[in-house]
Specification:
Length: 426
């Protein structure tokens, strides 16, 4: 199976961060990694491979080096598991004009227009009482279109193509069907869970989001483009995992995929929370040795970049407009919205050169605001030298995004070589 086929399977099976982490967990277990519970004492051994999760939505996987960790350092790759979406509210039931609807909350910087007129499924995690009255958690995925957010016909809004403002409160509640009676949403969830083979006595709470039922696919006359939901940033999670599993070395390697990047990363599972630092402290409890280790380490923050759009080329700096299928992008910003430095950029460029991979650079226009990633957060929290890179894409934060097939394969190759580096400059 090709890298892109594996990517498509991963994306289609990962409609939420909970599902993405569960799929990564399964791949790591299959590859011989040992799962650790954060609540237990750890006894880490040299040259062994481990992983741990938090809240089912963030994951850290690593290989202990064969040599002393303080002397060898870590080669780290970071990404995030969450994507902008529409999340179901706690009391979502709406019954208007004979239609069942659900109230939704906008999560992250969603590009809202593409959510209209699409078949939407629902997935996430349920917290329930089992038949014995004990609290339990279950993933749920309807895997079929159960809802739609219909557009208003142009006949009723003649100015729609001139720019229709979208009211998230009134215009986004999806339609689930028709009935003369009100919807009991938790009963619906319990019934769907039973159809999936799990019986519970009550659904107490949930974290659910809608997603597009159209699957990942290659497009273009030569199949050179790849389209899917959640490329930002499950694509980077996938590439980091592929590289970790491909790397054949005794070096210290680590992959961290955090939740909540799209809403600022400030949470127990986000990059601004303590999860990664907690793991590093348990890997190397001595504070002075840990500082030595971090000085000899490097983090590559992988989060997609804005490819230059041929219809909107003026939105890019003319010298820094990344092309799809022209190689991974180093992201730079003088105001530290990205954490790349000349040193970390040079390391990546040399790795890419050895792999025969072209590298591009992105700098936002000087008259536009710049986005950010987990890179500056991790760099500031840990004091580790960091590089921000990403695959160029179109339609970032849309319900359906586009990237280049060759870029996926090339970036996996460079990340694999990064993991296998014998040493890093202090």
């Amino acid at each position: 199976m090709t890298v892109v086929n594996r990517l498509a399977q991963f994306l289609d099976a990962s409609p939420t961060p909970f599902h993405a982490v569960e799929n990564m967990r399964a791949a790591l277990l299959s590859a011989g990694f040992q799962e650790l519970n954060e609540a237990d004492a750890w006894d880490l051994k040299a040259a062994q491979r481990y992983f741990t999760t938090r809240n089912g939505a963030s994951i850290v996987a690593w290989q202990m080096p064969a040599d002393a960790l303080a002397e060898s350092g870590l080669r780290m790759v970071g990404a995030h598991t969450d994507s902008p979406c529409l999340k179901v509210k706690p009391k979502p039931e709406l019954h208007q004009q004979g239609y069942w609807q659900l109230g939704v909350e906008v999560y992250g910087g969603v590009l809202l227009n593409p959510w209209f007129d699409r078949g939407l499924a629902l997935a996430g995690r349920l917290t329930c009482l089992d038949e014995g009255g004990a609290l339990c958690h279950h993933l749920i995925d309807f895997k079929r279109a159960i809802a739609v957010i219909p557009n208003l016909a142009i006949h009723l809004d003649r100015e729609a193509n001139s720019g229709r403002a979208i009211n998230a409160q009134t215009m986004l509640p999806p339609i689930l069907g028709q009935s003369d009676q009100a919807l009991d949403f938790r009963a619906l969830l319990r019934e769907e869970l039973a159809r999936q083979g799990v019986v519970v006595s009550e659904v107490i709470d949930y974290e659910l989001s809608f997603y597009d039922t159209q699957g990942a696919e290659t497009v273009g006359l030569n199949n050179e483009l790849f389209m899917s939901a959640r490329l930002d940033n499950l694509l980077s999670c996938f590439m980091g995992l592929e590289a970790l599993l491909n790397a054949d070395a005794k070096t210290g390697m680590l992959l961290v995929c955090n939740d909540h990047e799209e809403v600022g990363s400030m949470s127990a599972t986000g990059a601004q929370g303590p999860m990664l630092e907690n793991v590093l402290m348990r890997m190397l409890p001595d504070a002075e040795q840990r500082i030595c280790m971090l000085t000899r380490s490097m983090m590559i923050s992988a989060d997609n970049a804005h490819g230059i759009h041929p219809n909107f080329a003026d939105r890019h700096d003319a010298n820094h407009g990344p092309l799809l299928n022209a190689g991974p992008v180093i992201k730079l910003n003088a105001n530290q919205r990205y954490a790349s430095t000349d040193v970390t950029s040079a390391i990546f460029k040399l790795l890419a050169r050895d792999a025969g991979v072209s590298v591009q650079e992105f700098v936002v226009r000087s008259d536009m605001a710049c986005g950010s990633t987990i890179g500056p957060i991790t760099s500031a929290e840990l004091g580790v030298k960091t590089l921000d890179i990403g695959v160029p894409q179109f339609g970032m934060h849309s319900i359906r995004e586009t990237a280049g097939v060759q870029d996926v394969e090339a970036t996996v190759e460079v990340l694999t070589r990064f993991y296998q580096l014998d040493s890093l400059p202090a």
